[in-house]
Amino acid sequence: MNDSPLGWAGRVMEWLGFAARLVLVNVLFVAGTLAGLVVFGLFPAAVAATTVLARLRSGGAGEHLVRDFVTVYRFQFWHVNRVGSIFWLAGVVLFLNYLTLPGRAGAAMLSSPIYSVLLLLAAVVGVGMMMAAATAVAVCSRYRDSATRTWRTAFMLPLVSPVMGISLLMSLVAFAVVFSGMTVLVPLVGASVPLLISGWLVGRRLEGLETAPSTMA
Length: 217
Fold this sequence. Notes:
- By secondary structure, the protein is an all-alpha fold.
- It has helices at residues 8-35, 42-58, 65-104, 107-110, 113-142, 147-160, 162-181, 186-189, 192-216.
- Helix 2 packs across helix 5 (113-142), helix 3 (65-104) packs across helix 6 and helix 5 (113-142) crosses helix 9.
- The relative contact order is 0.11.
């Protein structure tokens, strides 16, 4: 009845091997990010890691994780940086807003509803940009559309697919809570596990959209 000829011991070894590959992908992600001086390396490293993790999830990664990661990283480098530019720009704007708004606010404004609304709006926009960025990474790992089409898909997909959007948001929040409480996990799987889950969530929805026309025909 056991799928593995070694029974439960074989299953444990398989899970340990999978965990070791997650750690390796996390190391590759960090190395790729640093190789691009963070700004130019973050999105290519994320796309390369998501691509490799999808193969690992399906059992097709084999023993060439490093080679596959480097191949995708180099092939996607400039294209993914064009896609990621809008998210970097939005991040800078939100960060400047975060720095300047409290400095300009006096005691009266701090207690006003307007200030609370502005902070809430900034938080909503920030969360939306994070979800769109995660979606864009998953889209780039599957397709090579233009930057404009990728942006449109990244911003619209979480809105038109509420189940996927809510699941993606909840997973990002859960990872933030877990990693903030168990910081030792961050250098081990701090990037690979969130990319694995977000890539699976978005990829499953994209697969559903791909098969929808044939299903309806």
